[in-house]
């Protein structure tokens, strides 16, 4: 089997963030950096001790904190202009997937001799130049963006577009469980399910599934399944938070190389049109797309069921093991207190046909699904989820 596999070259776990950043500054012979984050992270004071420690080490820190959920073209351009105006030579993205996505793209647009516009970067491997030095630090256990070559940007009222390039992989990913301790249960649950979807869809990816991504998906799913309840219901449990961060990262490495499929393709329009958080959008569509895929992916689903479903009868047929996995995930989503129906999050029945049309625009994802999803199929799936 021929395949390629790329990931972030250096991963640092549970080491003091300021120390790692200072070391990287020393390596690059730089005395300043810019943190790209959001107002919530800033207001929680999570960055205060880090910034103070860097200042004591004579490292100047500037902060761009205007990142919003589902970041817009305008925000990405503002971030790049901020980096240029402050003559930034080193970018640190700290936050959820949105902050890291903005940091990734801004580090390209603000690089010396960048001759591309943001619009020219959209698509697969369209980045022509180098980026600024980049470190990514997740504060949620969900997107895995710290190890993926992908940024998703909101391009209109209801549309998003992706930039896919290995240039988006950072120099270092820093995983610090302490930075996730303040996450509320609802966000912990939604982002955790998002990471589980990454692992499941990477394992069943139609085109680029490979032994390395399979191994990572399996280990990610076990870590996430074993720890998500504890992380949600006892958010101060540092061990559970750490295991979730590791699981999210492993799932990110998996789907960065064996891309996600139908669940994500149908989740994106929910976020674009109704601004449903990405993890929750995935949770809403997961069981329905899995049951649609079941005739074609039953053996793979059965293998995953054996990893995480307690008291699974090993004598069951593959199709029954696969159904057990779907039921397990439905029960888990319910136990975590997440909504199970589109109507529960404000989506109207008369919008479903338009959502199905929008889902068809996600061809870069749909091609990875184990079986083709047509517009009619997408409408049926939205109706089932409604």
Task: List the main descriptive attributes of the protein structure presented here.
alpha/beta; globular; 6-stranded parallel beta sheet; Dehydroquinate synthase-like, alpha domain; 52% helix; 14 helices; 386 residues; Rossmann fold; 12% strand; 3-stranded mixed beta sheet; single chain
How would you sum up this structure, described in words?
This protein is of the alpha/beta class and 386 residues long. It has two domains: 10-180, Rossmann fold (3-Layer(aba) Sandwich); 185-385, Dehydroquinate synthase-like, alpha domain (Up-down Bundle), CATH 1.20.1090. 52% of the residues lie in helices and 12% in strands. It contains 14 helices and nine strands. The strands form two sheets. It has a six-stranded parallel β-sheet with strand order 1-9-6-4-2-3, with helices on both faces. Strands 5-8-7 form a three-stranded mixed β-sheet. It is globular and about 60 Å long. The mean pLDDT is 95.
Task: Give a quick precis of the structure.
Helices cover 52% and strands 12% of the residues. The protein is α/β, with parallel strands linked by helices and 386 residues long.
Shape call: globular
The whole-number mean of residue pLDDT values reads 95
Tell me what the CATH architecture of the largest domain is.
Up-down Bundle
Q: How many structural domains does the protein architecture include? A: 2
Radius of gyration: 20 Å
- Total DSSP helices: 14
Helix content: 40-55%
CATH topology of the largest domain: Dehydroquinate synthase-like, alpha domain
Level-1 CATH class name of the largest domain: Mainly Alpha
């Amino acid at each position: 089997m021929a395949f390629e596999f790329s990931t972030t070259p250096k991963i640092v776990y549970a080491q003091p963030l300021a120390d790692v950043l200072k070391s990287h500054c020393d390596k690059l012979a730089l005395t300043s950096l810019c943190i790209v984050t959001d107002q919530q992270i800033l207001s929680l004071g999570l960055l205060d001790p880090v910034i103070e420690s860097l200042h004591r080490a004579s490292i100047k820190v500037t902060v761009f904190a205007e990142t919003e959920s589902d970041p817009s073209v305008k925000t990405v351009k503002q971030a790049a202009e901020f980096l240029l105006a402050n003559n930034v030579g080193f970018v640190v993205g700290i936050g959820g997937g949105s902050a890291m996505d903005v940091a990734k793209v801004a580090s390209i647009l603000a690089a010396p001799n960048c001759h591309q516009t943001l619009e020219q970067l959209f698509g697969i491997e369209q980045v022509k130049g180098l980026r600024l030095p980049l470190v990514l630090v997740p504060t949620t256990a969900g997107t895995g963006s710290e190890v993926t070559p992908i940024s998703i940007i909101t391009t209109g009222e209801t549309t998003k577009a992706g930039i896919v390039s290995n240039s988006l992989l950072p120099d270092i990913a820093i995983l610090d469980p302490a930075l996730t301790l303040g996450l509320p249960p609802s966000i912990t649950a939604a982002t955790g399910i998002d990471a589980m979807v990454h692992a499941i869809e990477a394992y069943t990816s139609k085109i680029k599934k490979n032994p390395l991504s399979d191994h990572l998906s399996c280990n990610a799913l076990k870590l996430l399944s074993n720890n998500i309840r504890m992380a949600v219901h006892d958010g101060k449990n540092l061990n559970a938070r750490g295991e979730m961060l590791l699981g999210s990262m492993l799932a990110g490495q998996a789907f960065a190389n064996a891309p996600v499929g139908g669940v994500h393709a149908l989740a994106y329009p929910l976020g674009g049109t109704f601004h449903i958080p990405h993890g929750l959008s995935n949770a809403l569509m997961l069981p329905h797309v899995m049951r649609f895929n079941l005739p074609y992916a039953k053996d793979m689903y059965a293998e995953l069921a054996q990893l995480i479903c307690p008291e699974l009868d090993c004598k069951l047929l593959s199709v029954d093991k696969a159904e057990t996995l779907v039921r397990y995930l439905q029960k888990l989503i319910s136990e975590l207190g997440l909504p199970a129906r589109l109507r529960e999050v404000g989506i109207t029945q008369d919008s479903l046909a338009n959502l199905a049309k929008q889902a068809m625009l996600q061809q870069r994802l749909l091609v990875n699904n184990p079986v083709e999803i047509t517009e009619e199929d997408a409408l049926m799936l939205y109706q089932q989820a409604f």
